[in-house]
Amino acid sequence: MQRQYCTSPAKTILYAVNLQFTQKHRSSTLCSTMYLVSILFASLAITPLVLKTFFPYFWKDTFYIANLVRILLKLVLRRRRKPLFLVLDRFLEQSVAHADRPFIVFENKTYSYLDTDRRSNKIANALQRHSKLRPGDTVALFMGNEPAFIFTWLALAKLGCPVAFLNHNIRSRSLLHCFNCCSAKLLIAAEELQEAVEEVLPSLREQGVCVYLMTKQCDTPGVEGFSDQVEEASDTPLPQALRSDITFKSPAVYIYTSGTTGLPKAAVITQNRLLVALAVLDSTGITPADVIYLNLPLYHTETGFVIGFIGSIETGSTIILRRKFSASQFWDDCRKYNVTVIQYIGEVLRYLCNTPKKLFPYALIKYDTERDEPIRDSTGLCVEAPKDETGLLVCQITGIAPFVGYANSQQTEKKRLRDVFQKGDLYFNSGDLLKIGQDNFIYFQDRVGDTFRWKGENVATTEVADILTLIDFVQEANVYGVQVPGNEGRIGMAAVTVKGGEQFDGNKTFSHVASYLPAYARPRFIRIQNAVEMTGTFKQMKVRLVEEGFDPAGITDPLYILQERNQSYTPMTGQIYGSIVAGSIKL
Questions:
Q1: pLDDT band at 222 (very low <50, low <70, confident <90, very high)
Q2: Reduced to 3 states, what is the DSSP secondary structure of residue 248?
């Protein structure tokens, strides 16, 4: 049976109108969709510009907030762990994961995380064996900044005992008052504080307080030498059950106010607060690779103990521990131990700023790359380069920082600069061109001889070489400046090697350098070599190349010249060279 189709003119017209409407609707929908997509892509393209203009710190703030969220989640998860997760547990994690990593460096002695764990075990086991100390009993710690302070605190934490930090500078009535504030049952003191302990010993003995002195022997009645007991003790770990009664509200540390309104008062630092304190350094971007200089008192919890010590436990960093702050030795220590993080409180920074400069004397001086010599003023002295301007790094030659020189006396003299900032002074010419930015970071720019001046502009050879090596057939590039008869300065030239199986393409090379380099920085001549010549210390050799210049009569390598008219690098000929020397071809 055949299907019947209506051929009524009216219906046919209606169908045609319907079809036309549908097509227009589809076309309109498609246009709308494309319009919306265009707006979306335009928005995405312009968003970075808008953010940079109106919200310059948007991404930094975003990443910082994301990091804080990460730290907060970590804290929440730790608070939910069973059994209770404390600061001590984080230290135990680090001592397992990074056992051999240096944790404490003190007076040229280094203690790894594992060393610290074992030494604290020995102290804890000695206390368990020789004292009547029980979990929850408070112990007063009377010590200055030394590894034993940290070992002992960790030992007492393993025993489940809160610790009162006594200021090792207080004496007599103040010392006794601070001790009584925390109701401690045991006093552990450093050997050098024996005399201070003996001043309050009668009162301590009346209270039945046991006193341990970190020394091998002590003849004072009522004071026990504790060092021998520690050495004889086992370094086996303490059972976690000793800390089973601890909660987040349990006291971990007692600290004392400065006493500006009377005698010092004991303030309680709970286990929860210490757990939160783990995040202090973590939130600032400190990593395990950082070295932290800790010269603030450990008995001062907010700086020395919490930020310096507890913070380092979280990040797994290394602590350079000093007995006390010394402005005269501060920077020497930082250089000696490659310190990356320092702390300050109160007047510390002012003290440091008032110390005389002790870095080796160096400066950046203005340098004429065309004449290849320092710029001097009317008095004949060198001129210091301001910030954001490239200058030559020179270092003063002194008895502390001598320059022995080379076997060849002429070569030695070339590296010496005289009358730099005053008549008669002597400096070492490093040959490095550097720049100090507004942020006080030092940026390497180039080597002397690796920068040339053409058409009144400085050209950095390393920058040009980097751009040339972006060409797909270029293996290496050695860029330098050569003199042109009748012209001031030096014009750019490059010796390049071509990748195996590839050919030098003059058109592509011209297009590339024209896209990336200003006219004055584009190499005018290119020399093709089989290999870039290197020194024994892997520095590109340029002296011979500079001397040979661009004369094809003395160069057997393929040689090309940049031709603006042809927009290509074309073979260099003797005729072209003669025209350049005669001045009929302007470069």
A1: very high
A2: coil
Task: Find out whether 258 and 265 touch, Cβ atoms under 8 Å.
Answer: no
Residues 6 or more apart whose Cβ sits within 8 Å of residue 248: 79, 84, 270, 271, 272, 275
* Residue 91 near residue 120, CB atoms below 8 Å: no
> Angle at the Cα of 333 (from 329 to 114), degrees rounded to 5?
135
- 171 vs 197: CA distance, rounded Å: 8
How would you classify residue 254: left for phi > 0, otherwise alpha for psi between -120 and 50, otherwise beta? beta
Check residues 422 and 535 and name the one with the higher pLDDT.
Answer: 422
Helix segments in 133-225, DSSP class H: 147-158, 172-181, 194-206
How many residues does this entry show for the chain? Answer: 587
How many other CB atoms are there within 10 angstroms of residue 37's CB atom?
Answer: 10
Residue 141 contacts residue 182 (beta carbons within 8 Å): no
Report the distance separating Cα 18 and Cα 299, nearest Å. 89
Give the model confidence (pLDDT) of 96-147 as tens digits. 999 999 999 999 899 999 999 999 999 999 999 999 899 999 999 999 999 9
Q: Which two tokens stand for residue 360?
A: 């080796």
Tell me the C-alpha distance between 558 and 527, whole Å: 6
DSSP 488: S
